[in-house]
Amino acid sequence: MAQVPYTAASDLRRTRGPSPLQKGFTLLELLVVMVIIGLLAGIVAPQYFSQLGKSNTKVARAQIEAFGQALDQYRLDVGSYPTTEQGLIALRTAPADTPRWQGPYLKRDIPADPWGRPYVYLAPGQKSEYDLSSLGSDGQVGGEAEASDVVSW
Description:
InterPro entries: Bac_GSPG_pilin, N_methyl_site, Pilin-like, T2SS_protein-GspG_C, Type2_sec_GspG. The protein is mostly helical.
């Protein structure tokens, strides 16, 4: 068996890797990957956005519950719920005619509902001593799913 003499060029050929014609992906492979990603996005995106709507409703429900606790504390101190004219702001700043006010009853300012609209507060309410509600994503009374009203009663 004849021995091939060692040269730097022969070493270089062994360490270069694949030739330029063997590198990269084919157009077909890229298209298959893009189709798979598109199918996954078509399945996942509707699920994600439906969960987003549900989470806004849950946030509104939690905020209404927190307002309810603050309103109950206000009633214990003052003797009645704030009137519709006084509104929820009475939980943060003392109305002029309430000497027994011991608030603030909320740590932060009154937030808008998750859809950016103010909560609707009525006292006395039509359903209970006070009615507190969010009109949902559509801003209209009634509705279904994410557009449904979130209420305190």
